[in-house]
């Protein structure tokens, strides 16, 4: 059944808008939702609605807001299977992964429900008598959150849950090709008892969203922008926010390296590279970009990796498969451009490339009318290749070799991204040298580049972000501002750095 969904602002559906069909990428003729896209004016109006509702929400005691977050977690938990099935149907994510994504929302809520009782400030000693100093966390105001559709419910929760807990109002713009999943999550959040206007869902395309955000920033109705998406769009949002003296929370793309040392457990490394490279069809910001393998084990690793890829199940995401289809037509078209980056000096070791069809099957699988693509492993990539330097959002992994750990670290840092990284080794010295040298915000040892836990900071540096972090207590600094207060009860004006008692030492004293 096709859903008909609209933006929701101030607790009411916003009728009208341009129709957009969100399809099932495993069966492209099936429309999951008819999405009614709002324009820039509607986005700006939603920000004004949020600004009007925010002050009252901020007055709700933080522990009570924490109980609302607890209710969100329980509601998501009770609806986990239905939400996961919708995610699988709308974006083609294998059901097991989709269920794990929904579990991540629950984990996020479980972590942050307690933070309502731990939004601590400090009592600070003053340099003067009869005076006390304090610090407080205060909400930023209205957060405009724009999220991608490859993780249509988990990643939004990283923004929405802490932003709401801290007393902010939110305008959330999800990816239109994952709008049905986002709309379902919105309904679960609203059912937890959020007042009208505190959380607003705006369905819009990128151009209208950017124009509406520009208006809202000029009007002063947005005080924090959170964005998950490409590095190119992240730059534009960063520039826009900078003109308004704001620092956005940017979680962008990655070209995530995996270093395989000569002492690595190769079976474990292959397992990690298979999941990191081709889970979610390689459409994660943390997906594996390049395997950097020591020259002494290069051939053995490549043989085992190629065999693992050949044996992996690709197909209907409702079944037990490594990966399903690409997210949407736009991603399939872009991925075919990336395949054009394969050069004559590269060696494709994984077999056929391109879309899986009856004319280009994967064994007995012919694609069944979906956006299915062959997984591709390319050996012989070089440090100057586009395939090495740029993010390739899809099921393609490059392989290169190195001689020394220093060379491996230099290769890993060369693309200029800095989201996730991995090293396989049994040598603690190598692991810590890699950690110290890599520019990524996240490092895994003997694990894949993909995977996050709700109580650790998630985010990148360089082309992968501006150093902001989601998840854990660190995200509280994105959605609160520190406020200092001094309280002088001496009954007289005491001037800092001037009216300060001094105890004079005898600095000429010697034993």
Lay out the secondary structure.
Layout: E1 3-5, E2 7-9, E3 12-14, E4 18-24, E5 27-37, H1 40-59, H2 62-78, H3 80-91, H4 95-113, E6 122-125, E7 131-139, E8 142-146, H5 154-165, E9 169-173, H6 179-191, E10 199-201, H7 206-219, E11 224-228, H8 231-243, E12 249-251, E13 256-260, H9 266-278, E14 288-294, H10 298-311, H11 329-339, E15 347-348, E16 376-379, H12 386-389, E17 396-402, H13 405-413, E18 417-418, E19 420-424, H14 428-437, E20 442-445, E21 461-462, H15 476-479, E22 480-488
In short:
The chain has 15 helices and 22 strands. It is α/β, with parallel strands linked by helices and about 500 residues long.
Give a written overview of the molecule.
This protein is an alpha/beta fold. It has 15 helices and 22 strands. The protein has a 7-stranded mixed β-sheet with strand order 15-16-17-14-13-19-20, with helices on both faces. It is globular. The mean pLDDT is 96.
């Amino acid at each position: 059944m096709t859903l008909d969904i609209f933006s929701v602002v101030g607790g009411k559906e916003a009728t009208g808008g341009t129709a957009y069909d969100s399809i099932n990428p495993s069966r492209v003729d099936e429309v999951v939702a008819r999405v009614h896209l709002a324009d820039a004016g509607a986005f700006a109006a939603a920000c004004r609605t949020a600004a009007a509702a925010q002050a009252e929400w901020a007055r709700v005691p933080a522990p009570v807001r924490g109980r609302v977050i607890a209710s969100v977690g329980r509601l998501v938990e009770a609806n986990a299977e239905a939400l996961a099935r919708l995610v699988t149907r709308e974006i083609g994510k294998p059901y097991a992964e989709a269920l794990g994504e929904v579990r991540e929302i629950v984990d996020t809520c479980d972590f942050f429900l307690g933070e309502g009782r731990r939004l601590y400030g400090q009592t600070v000693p003053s340099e003067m008598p009869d005076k006390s100093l304090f610090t407080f966390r205060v909400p930023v105001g209205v957060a405009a959150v724009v999220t991608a559709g490859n993780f249509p419910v988990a990643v939004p929760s990283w923004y929405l849950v802490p932003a709401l807990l801290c007393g902010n109002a939110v305008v959330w713009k999800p990816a239109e090709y994952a709008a049905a999943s986002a709309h379902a999550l919105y309904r679960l959040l609203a059912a937890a008892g959020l007042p009208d206007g505190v959380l607003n869902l705006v369905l819009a395309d990128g151009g209208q969203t950017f124009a509406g955000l520009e208006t809202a920033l000029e009007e002063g109705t947005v005080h924090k922008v959170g964005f998950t998406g490409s590095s190119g769009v992240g730059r534009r949002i960063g520039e826009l926010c900078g003109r308004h003296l704001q620092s956005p929370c940017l979680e962008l793309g990655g070209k995530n390296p995996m270093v395989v040392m000569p002492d690595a457990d190769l079976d474990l490394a292959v397992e990690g590279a298979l999941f990191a490279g081709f889970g979610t069809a390689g459409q994660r910001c943390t997906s594996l970009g390049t395997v950097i393998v020591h020259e002494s084990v290069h051939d053995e690793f490549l043989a085992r990796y190629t065999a693992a890829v050949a044996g992996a199940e690709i197909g209907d995401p409702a079944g037990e498969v490594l990966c399903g289809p690409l997210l949407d037509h736009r991603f399939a078209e872009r991925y075919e451009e990336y395949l054009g980056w394969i050069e004559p000096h590269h060696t494709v070791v994984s077999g056929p490339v391109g879309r899986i069809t009856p004319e280009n099957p994967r064994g007995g699988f012919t694609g069944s009318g979906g956006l299915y693509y062959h997984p591709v492993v390319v050996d012989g990539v070089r440090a100057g290749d586009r395939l090495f330097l740029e993010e390739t959002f899809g099921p393609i992994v490059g392989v290169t070799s190195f001689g020394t750990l220093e060379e491996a670290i230099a290769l890993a840092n060369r693309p200029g991204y800095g989201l996730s990284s991995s090293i396989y080794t049994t040598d603690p010295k190598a692991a810590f040298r890699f950690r110290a040298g890599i520019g990524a915000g996240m490092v895994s040892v003997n694990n894949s580049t993909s995977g996050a836990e709700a109580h650790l900071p998630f985010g990148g540096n360089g082309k992968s972000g501006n150093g902001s972090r989601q998840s854990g207590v660190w995200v509280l600094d994105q959605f609160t501002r520190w406020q200092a207060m001094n309280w002088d009860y001496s009954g007289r004006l005491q001037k800092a750095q001037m009216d300060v008692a001094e105890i004079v030492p005898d600095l000429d004293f010697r034993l």
